[in-house]
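User: Let's play a game. I give you a shape written as tokens, and you guess the letters that built it. Ready? Here's round one.
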């Protein structure tokens, strides 16, 4: 072996590799690297050189040896069988004939990754702007689209203040007769709104929506539809964490060969210093990445948020930095009909094969329940399990006692086998679910009765101003992020709260060590009602840290 990778930095090794035209020597360098420092960037450099030699062969440039591309089998992959005897001339001829016939016999399954084989992220491309996919339904912008535009507007205004660069908020959307919706995006904070109008896009379809979005992001199309931009791909892109948005975000980011942080509830942009050798290119070296989108989402503990970063590797860019946003996470800005912006019609020929799925008929669901925007939310959990109908009735009575309140439920009720009587059954449906897969709310007062506080539920309500919890389990996780915790049976506590709200005479005494009070039961579903237990109203000094 002519080169010992142990003796070279990544940059030096890359230069040395350019002098090697022998694939066997390159593979020997690769094996030595794997046996030694096993640096990812070094392995990528060897693979890159192998690819260059492979491309030279394909273009007719002669080299001494046949090369092996990154996606083709190497001796290491197939073992000693790779050293088989040379083919006889007749066998070679048969092999060539088989190769010529293979395209006709291809069933599109033999090489499942073939259409991604040569996809590479850009290296050192130009990136600008924050793009926002504005989902529509029945000719209207979804509320989450307006929320994302408002957050994007705030972020890019701060971006200009921090970096001095005037980059834009770009809304992109598609559908039938959607020019008016593009203009509405300008009123809600976009600087540019690019739309593709086609009657076949009236409803979400995976393939055409993905292809159109990627085409827009790459700046492909006619001069008239692309001359407003001078960069390769967006710097950032936001999608709604709706059913369609989750689907589209994964497909588009894969098509653009970048990453995605899903189900985020907060975003901010700042620089980040890292020492990970995968990102810096060399162990022990620190590198500062500027203009990094920090994408926050809840982790599985329920009490912390993970911050996801999309950082480039040496020689490989990851853009756009992408996130899907939980509906209700941000406030939309007040629309300004006089706000100026650029509306661009996107030009692209859509392949008929992309519309192989046709919607022939559909049923329209009844209008859902919007839990956001209310002063008070009363949320019921599995603690109503002893008497589901009675528990639901008590929750509704407390809701009626307030001027502006609404009833919510946890996923535990949605997925349970509880039997509700007809007059309250409609309140047990998924449309009232609060949490990561439901609605995100932030009322002035959130009353949680019989709710354990799973992380998925916490995501949906922990931005509430004041959280009051009723539960007999003092170790319930929800206590850690509640402002007040009432140890008691919801079947006993809720009527007293209702009476207090209706009378306006409400006094709550906080006790540290408990005290004789109401008969408390297991608010998480047990059957201890009737025992003389403690009624503990504790200031938990809660909130999300």
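Assistant: Ready! My guess for every position:
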């Amino acid at each position: 072996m002519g080169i010992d990778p142990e003796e070279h930095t990544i940059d030096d090794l890359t230069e040395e590799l350019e002098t090697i035209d022998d694939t066997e020597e390159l593979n020997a360098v690769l094996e030595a690297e794997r046996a030694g420092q096993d640096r990812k960037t070094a392995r990528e450099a060897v693979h890159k050189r192998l690819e260059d030699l492979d491309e030279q062969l394909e273009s007719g440039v002669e080299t001494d040896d046949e090369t092996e591309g990154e996606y083709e089998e190497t001796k290491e992959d197939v073992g000693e069988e790779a050293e088989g005897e040379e083919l006889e001339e007749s066998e070679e001829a048969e092999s060539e004939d088989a190769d010529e016939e293979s395209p006709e016999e291809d069933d599109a399954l033999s090489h499942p990754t073939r259409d991604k084989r040569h996809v590479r992220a850009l290296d050192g491309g130009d990136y600008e702007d924050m793009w926002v996919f504005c989902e529509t339904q029945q000719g209207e912008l979804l509320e989450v689209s307006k929320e994302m535009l408002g957050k994007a507007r705030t972020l890019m205004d701060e971006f200009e203040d921090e970096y001095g660069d005037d980059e834009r908020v770009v809304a992109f959307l598609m559908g039938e007769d959607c020019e008016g919706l593009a203009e509405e995006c300008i009123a809600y904070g976009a600087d540019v709104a690019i739309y593709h109008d086609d009657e076949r896009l009236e409803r979400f379809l995976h393939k055409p929506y993905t292809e159109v979005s990627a085409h827009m992001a790459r700046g492909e199309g006619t001069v008239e539809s692309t001359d407003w931009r001078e960069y390769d791909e967006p710097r950032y892109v936001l999608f709604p964490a709706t059913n369609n948005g989750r689907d589209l975000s994964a497909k588009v980011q894969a098509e653009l060969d970048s990453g995605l942080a899903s189900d985020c509830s907060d975003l901010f942009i700042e620089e980040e210093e890292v020492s990970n050798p995968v990102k810096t290119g060399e162990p022990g070296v620190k590198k500062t990445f500027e203009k990094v989108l920090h994408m926050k989402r809840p982790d599985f503990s329920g009490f912390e948020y993970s911050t996801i970063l999309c950082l480039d590797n040496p020689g490989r860019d990851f853009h756009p930095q992408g996130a899907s946003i939980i509906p209700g996470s941000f406030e939309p800005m007040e629309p300004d009909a006089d706000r100026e912006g650029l509306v661009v019609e996107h030009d692209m020929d859509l392949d008929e094969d992309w519309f192989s799925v046709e919607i022939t008929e559909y049923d329209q669901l009844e209008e859902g329940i919007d839990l956001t925007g209310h002063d008070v939310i009363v949320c019921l959990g599995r603690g109503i399990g002893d008497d589901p109908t009675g528990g639901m009735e008590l929750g509704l009575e407390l809701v009626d006692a307030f001027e502006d309140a609404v009833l919510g439920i946890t996923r535990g009720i949605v997925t349970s086998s509880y039997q509700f009587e007809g007059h309250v059954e409609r309140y047990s449906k998924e449309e009232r679910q609060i949490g990561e897969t439901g609605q995100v709310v932030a009322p002035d007062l959130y009353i949680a009765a019989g709710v354990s506080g799973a992380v998925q539920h916490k995501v949906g309500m922990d931005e509430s101003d004041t959280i009051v919890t009723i539960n007999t389990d003092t170790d319930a996780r929800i206590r850690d992020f509640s402002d007040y915790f009432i140890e008691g049976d919801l079947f006993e506590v809720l009527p007293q709260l209702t009476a207090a709200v209706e009378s306006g005479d409400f006094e709550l005494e906080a006790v540290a060590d408990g005290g004789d009070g109401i008969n408390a039961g297991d608010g998480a579903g047990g059957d201890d009602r009737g025992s003389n237990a403690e009624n503990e109203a504790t200031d938990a000094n809660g909130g999300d840290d």
